[in-house]
Amino acid sequence: MLRGAGREENNPRGGSVPELDSGATAWILTSAALVLLMTPGLALFYGGMTRSKSVLNMMMMSFGAIGLVSLLWVFYGYSIAFGEDVGGITGDLSAAGLRGMLESGTEGGIPDLLFAGFQLMFAVITVALISGAIADRAKFGPWLLFAGLWATLVYFPVAHWVWGGGWIFELGVLDFAGGTAVHINAGAAALALALVLGRRVGWPKDKFKPHNLPMVLLGAGLLWFGWFGFNAGSALAANGTAAVSFINTQVATAAAVLGWLLVEKIRDGKPTTLGAASGAIAGLVAITPACAFLEPLGAIALGVIAGVVCALAVGLKYRLKYDDSLDVVAVHMVGGIIGSLLIGFLAIEVLAGEGNNGLLYGGGIALLGKQALGSVAVLAYSFVVAYLIGFAIEKTIGFRASADAEVDGIDNAEHAESAYEFSTTGGGGGGAFAAAGIAASATPKETTEPVSEKVAG
Amino acid sequence: MKLVTAVIKPHQLDAVKEALHTLGVAGLTVSEVQGYGRQKGHTEVYRGAEYTVEFLPKIRVEVLTDEIDVEKIVDAVVGAARTGKIGDGKVWVTGVEEVVRVRTGERGLDAL
Questions:
Q1: Subunit structure of this entry (chain B) (predicted)?
Q2: Rounded to an integer, what distance in angstroms lies between the CA atom of residue A309 and that of residue A306?
Q3: Chain A to chain B Cβ contacts (< 8 Å)
C-alpha cells in the first residue's frame, strides 16, 4: 500500500489524474468490503474466547470501533494519515471531512474516495484488535473514549509514517499491508492497556475457558476470508502484486496453522481447535507486511515460524504476569514483529524493489535494520501513548469495571443484556447445566501432567 | 415408603427408564446434575493453559416406591446403568415419611 510515493509507479499512464481502471476499482471496492467483514469476524473470534457472561461487551468493543472510527476517519483521520506531509510526522488537514474528494480524480486508476474508504476499514480493525487484551473487565464508554484518542494520536499519525509518506516510509521500511502500522501498533497498545487495567479477578488461577469454540472458528474463518481483501487489496489494483499477495496469504496461514498445532502436540499432547484458529490468525498477521515481497516458499517458511513462535509467546503472559486476556500481544505484536523482520531475510528484489533482497537472497543487512527500526519505533510510540491515554482514563472516569460487575458479568453491568438464556425457570430454553454450569464449576490446575492420563473413563 | 435415588451416566438413562418401565414403575423424576466420584474429572487445554473439569455431567433418577419393591427397583437400576467402567454412578435408598398426591390430596401408599 504505497499511496504516498508510489503514485507514478502505480499509474502506468504517468499522469497525475489517470483514467479510472474499472477492474482495479471493482477489486478495491470488494476488498474494502472484505476488510470491513474482518471486524465482525474479530468480534466473533474474540467473543467466543471470553466467558459467556462477557461475550456481548467483547463484541460491542469491535462494533463500537466500527461506529466511532469510521466517523473520525472522515472528520480528520484520513487527512492526518494521507494528507500533505508535514515534517514526516503527520498529514495536514487539507482533506478533513473528505471535502473536495467527491469530484477529485483517480490515482493508480482507482478513485481517491475509494482509497479513503479502503483505508477506513484498516483504521477500524486496528482499533478493534486492541480490545482483546482487556476482555471481561473494560467499561464500554471509557473504551470508546480510548478508541477515539488512540486512533487520533497513534493510528492516524502512524499510518502516515508508514504509508502516507512519513518518516518511516521515507526510510524505506517495507510494510505492505500493515505489519507495523496495524499489528505491532495494536499489539503494543494492547500490552499497555493490559498493564493499565491490571489482571482480572482470579487470574491466572481461576477459570477463563473460551465459552464457544465454534464461534471462535467462525470468527477466524471470516478473518481469514476478509484478509484476502486486506493483503491482496493492498496492491491497490487487480494485478500481479495482488496475485502474489493472495497466494502468499493463503500458504503462510496454512503453514502457521500446522506450526501452532505442532507446538501443541509436542507440548500439551493434543492439537486443539483453539490452537488451529490462533495459528491461522498468527500466520495472517505475520504475512501481512511481507505478502507482496516473498515467493510462496518464503511465505510458507514465514508461516511456520510465526505459528511456532506465537504459540510459544502465549506463555509469556503467565511468566511475566500480565493479563492479556485473549493474547493480542502474543499473536499481533509478536506476529507483526516476526513478519516485519522476516522481510529482511526473505524478501526478493524482483517483488520488493531494487536493492531490497533479504539476507537469504544475497541482500545486505540494511533492509533488516530498517525493518527492525520501523518495528521498534511504532511499538515504543504506540505503547507509551496508549499507556498514557489508558492511565488518564483509568484515573479520571475509570476504565476498569468494578470487581462486582466483573464477577457478575460485564455484559449485564455495561449493557443490561445477557448473551444466552438457559434458565428453565426464567422463560428461556433448557439445558442450563450442560451449557453453562459445567464450565462455571471448572477450576484450573497448576500441574502439567499429560492430558491423556486424566481423561475419565 | 422409600425413595430410590440413582446417579448415573447420562447415556444410560434410556436403559434405566426401560428397566423401570418393565417393572411397572409408574413414575420417576429425572434431573441433570454434576458431580464426581473416583473418576475425578478430566483436563482441558486452551492455548497451553490447563483446566481440570472436576464436575462431570450426570443424571439423577428418583423413584418413590413401596418398601416391598425397593430391592427389585434397585436391582433393575443397577443392572441397566452398569457399563463396568469407572463413573457408572451410585444408587441409594432413603426412608420417606409421607407422600401426598397434589391433584387429589391422597396420602401414603395411595399417593404412589
A1: Homotrimer.
A2: 5
A3: 89
The span from the CA of A98 to the CA of A71, in Å, is 11
Q: Distance of CA A7 to CAs A3, A115, A204, A335, B76, Å? A: 6, 12, 50, 29, 83
The answer to whether the CB atoms of A445 and B50 lie below 8 A apart is: yes
Mode of pairing for the β-strands spanning A85-86 and A90-91: antiparallel
A447 contacts on B by Cβ (under 8 Å)? 50
Residues in B touching A328 (Cβ below 8 Å): none
Minimum distance, in Å, between the CA of residue B9 and any CA atom of chain A: 11
Considering only the beta carbons, identify the residue of A264, A275, A442 that sits closest to B51.
Answer: A442
In Å, how far are A219, A325, A428, A439, B33 from A206, measured between CA atoms? Answer: 25, 13, 28, 11, 22
How far is it, in rounded angstroms, from Cα A57 to Cα A141? Answer: 11
**CA angle, residues B99, B100, B101, in degrees to nearest 5:** 125
Cell numbers placing A45:
473470534
| CA–CA separation, A136 and A126 (whole Å) | 20
Give the pLDDT band (50/70/90) at residue A10.
very low
| Dist CA A245 CA A154 (whole Å) | 27
CATH 2.40.128.20 fits B2-111, yes or no: no
Of A178, A169, A131, give the one whose Cα is nearest residue A150. A131
Q: According to DSSP H, which parts of A203-325 are helical?
A: 213-232, 240-268, 273-287, 296-313, 316-320
- Mutation pick from A261, A445, A446 vs chain B, by most beta carbons of B within 10 Å, is A445
Query: B-chain residues within 8 Å CB-CB of A275?
Result: 47
Residue B1 grid coordinates: 415408603
Whether the CB-CB separation of A115 and A25 falls below 8 Å is answered with no
| Tens of pLDDT, residues A43-55 | 999 999 999 999 9
Q: Does B46 touch chain A (CB under 8 A)?
A: yes
Q: How far is A260 from chain B (nearest CA, A)?
A: 10
pTM (2 d.p.) = 0.85
ipTM surpasses cut 0.85: no
Which pairs with CB-CB distance under 8 Å and at least 24 residues apart come from A167-173?
A167/A88, A167/A89, A168/A374, A168/A377, A168/A378, A169/A2, A169/A4, A169/A5, A170/A5, A170/A88, A171/A370, A171/A373, A171/A374, A172/A356, A172/A367, A172/A370, A173/A370, A173/A371, A173/A373, A173/A374
Backbone dihedral angles phi then psi of residue B60, each to the nearest 5 degrees: -105, 125
Q: Which of A272, A311, A433 comes nearest B32 by C-beta?
A: A433
> How does DSSP assign A90-103, residue by residue?
EE-STTGGGTT-SS
Q: Identify all chain A residues contacting B86, using CB atoms and an 8 Å cutoff.
A: 456-457
Reported as a single tens digit per residue, the pLDDT across A372-401 is: 999 999 999 999 999 999 999 999 999 999
